[in-house]
Amino acid sequence: MRLDKFLAERGLGTRSEIKALLSKDLVTINGKVVKEAKYQLADFELEQVVYQATNLSPYSKQVFMLYKPVGVLSAAKDDKSPCALDYLPSNLQTRKYSCVGRLDKYSEGLLLLTNDGELIHRLTQPKWQIKKTYKVTFSPELKAGEAELITSQFANGLEMKDLICKPATFQALSANTALVTVSEGKFHQVRRMMAHFAHEVTSLIRLCEGPIELGNLQTGEIRPLNAAEYAKLYAEVALERN
């Protein structure tokens, strides 16, 4: 397989973008810098391709970050709707990747995909209290003093008839937008929390999960974590990546 094709399938960009990063000495094979896009990878070299200290082996534990679009399911397969795992490089779609938690069909933003089962377990277990931040747009607009009320009740742990939430944060950005941070992943939690105050969520974008931030990733884009992101994510749940 050509090196540029191998890198493209791992979400590192278009063929032209890959030529540019190869020219910057960012890719090594078996410890040696390779700049030639047409370089033919031998089978034994597939596990030795490294980009910015991240091993791109298709067989090692990997994590991808996806900007999940609205309308896409956090699932592997569905007969009627597109799924998050459809965005993985084609050569990885037959391997055992799963979504880390769920982001409902009508929400968008950061969704992690990985083949590391223990990482998924820890990131989704309440014990680890992994924080997730969302940009929320809602209607109607906040009334005078309402932002302070919601902020206070979120901070104390919201109790509703059908849902009890751990302390969360609410930071109003405008009369109809806010940043909401929770440390749980209950069904439609943020939407239900806002509905408690008679506000309907019209847009929900996940901006970060633990130490991983959406950054400038665009709708439908996917890429592997870089070395620094891997280190932060695994440290967050006291795991070593191997």
UniProtKB/TrEMBL annotation:
<protein>
    <recommendedName>
        <fullName>Pseudouridine synthase</fullName>
        <ecNumber>5.4.99.-</ecNumber>
    </recommendedName>
</protein>
<dbReference type="GO" id="GO:0120159">
    <property type="term" value="F:rRNA pseudouridine synthase activity"/>
</dbReference>
<dbReference type="InterPro" id="IPR006145">
    <property type="entry name" value="PsdUridine_synth_RsuA/RluA"/>
</dbReference>
<dbReference type="Pfam" id="PF00849">
    <property type="entry name" value="PseudoU_synth_2"/>
</dbReference>
<keyword id="KW-0413">Isomerase</keyword>
<dbReference type="InterPro" id="IPR020094">
    <property type="entry name" value="TruA/RsuA/RluB/E/F_N"/>
</dbReference>
<dbReference type="InterPro" id="IPR042092">
    <property type="entry name" value="PsdUridine_s_RsuA/RluB/E/F_cat"/>
</dbReference>
<dbReference type="GO" id="GO:0003723">
    <property type="term" value="F:RNA binding"/>
</dbReference>
<feature type="domain" description="RNA-binding S4">
    <location>
        <begin position="1"/>
        <end position="64"/>
    </location>
</feature>
<dbReference type="InterPro" id="IPR018496">
    <property type="entry name" value="PsdUridine_synth_RsuA/RluB_CS"/>
</dbReference>
<keyword id="KW-0694">RNA-binding</keyword>
<comment type="similarity">
    <text>Belongs to the pseudouridine synthase RsuA family.</text>
</comment>
<dbReference type="InterPro" id="IPR020103">
    <property type="entry name" value="PsdUridine_synth_cat_dom_sf"/>
</dbReference>
<dbReference type="Pfam" id="PF01479">
    <property type="entry name" value="S4"/>
</dbReference>
<dbReference type="GO" id="GO:0000455">
    <property type="term" value="P:enzyme-directed rRNA pseudouridine synthesis"/>
</dbReference>
<dbReference type="InterPro" id="IPR000748">
    <property type="entry name" value="PsdUridine_synth_RsuA/RluB/E/F"/>
</dbReference>
<dbReference type="InterPro" id="IPR036986">
    <property type="entry name" value="S4_RNA-bd_sf"/>
</dbReference>
<dbReference type="InterPro" id="IPR002942">
    <property type="entry name" value="S4_RNA-bd"/>
</dbReference>
<dbReference type="InterPro" id="IPR050343">
    <property type="entry name" value="RsuA_PseudoU_synthase"/>
</dbReference>
